[in-house]
From TrEMBL:
Residues 210-289 form the DUF4143 domain. This is ATPase AAA family. It comes from the Bacteria. Residues 18-145 form the AAA domain. Pfam families: AAA_14, DUF4143. It comes from Candidatus Magnetoglobus multicellularis str. Araruama.
Length: 295
């Protein structure tokens, strides 16, 4: 397994007893990272996937079903670590997490993993306020792929830049692989152009027609698919919503909502134009970057 930098940060004891919410794009390695951490500290039996009917049935029978499993775990961490994967798909999941945390926060470390829906749903209420920290896992970066030394933090951006200038490291092969197959583990590890193209098509189609339909309630999903075909040609220049409005024959607000939805689904992210004046930077059009690469 490729060790992720987030593991060193998110699971640090410095963050106390709060739950760790691991969010990020689909298939970027959230579950794998959580399972790796559980296995490292002999807690692999405390992984519960809420897509699994057995997990849901156990919860219905006993609200604290995992309490029996804790006694069979000899954790090498300071306390057992438990992972709840995809729990946000279960009704009233926030109340469930609140009950789990309030009852076992001193006995267990809770890890909660999920993608776009977890990221959006956690913002829709404050019932879990003060009970968790959120960490975002992105696709692989060059430093992770090349197994470089991990540095926790720097006091300033200038210090980080200077460290790179003082110790230049060139990883041509790894960089070419990232540019060709993106930072998502499956296509990157496969190293196959054909696999990457098929994976990319299925990934985008599934995300648009399943995840975004559920979390945004967009009605005209076909327009969203058309928008994704239009965006690649506009990557090199500031993204004009007015131009997209004319292309799609729809309103400015609708296109703006589409772009927000694509950002929420981690398909794209937008970078504001640089300006010394904040007000001017806000008004300027943003550049659009694809998270999964493009042809």
């Amino acid at each position: 397994m490729i060790e992720r930098n987030l593991i060193n940060t998110a699971f640090s004891e410095e963050f106390g007893k709060q739950m760790r919410f691991i969010i990020g794009p689909r298939q970027c390695g959230k579950t794998t990272a959580a399972k790796w951490f559980l296995q490292k500290y002999n807690c692999q039996s405390l992984y519960y996937n809420w897509d699994n009917r057995n997990t849901r049935d156990r919860y219905i029978e006993d609200n604290h079903f995992f309490s029996r499993d804790i006694y069979n775990v000899n954790s090498s961490w300071n306390k057992p670590v438990l992972c709840l994967d995809e729990i946000h798909k279960y009704p009233k999941w926030k109340n469930i997490l609140k009950d789990f945390y309030d009852s076992f926060c001193n006995e267990l470390l809770f890890i909660v993993t999920g993608s776009a829906r977890l990221d959006m749903m956690r913002k829709s209420g404050d019932s879990l306020a003060g009970r968790y920290f959120t960490f975002r896992l992105n696709p692989l970066i060059l430093q992770e792929l090349s197994a470089g030394d991990y540095h926790e933090s720097f006091e300033s951006a200038q210090e980080w830049i200077q460290s790179k200038l003082d110790n230049p490291i060139y990883k041509k092969q790894e960089l070419e692989a990232l540019l060709a197959f993106s930072g998502y583990p499956e296509p990157l590890i496969s190293g196959s152009d054909r696999f990457h193209r098929k994976w990319q098509t299925d990934y985008m189609d599934r995300l648009i027609r399943e995840d975004l339909r559920e979390i945004t309630h967009f009605q005209e999903m076909e327009n969203l698919s058309i928008l994704m075909k239009l965006l690649p040609d506009k990557v090199a220049s500031p993204l004009s919503i007015n131009s997209l409005t004319n292309d799609l024959k729809t309103s400015f607000q609708t296109v703006s909502n589409y772009l927000n939805g694509l950002e929420l689904g981690y398909l794209i992210f937008r970078i504001p134009s640089y300006s010394k004046k904040i007000a001017r930077s806000i008004k300027k059009e943003k550049n659009c970057i694809f998270m999964i690469g493009r042809e």
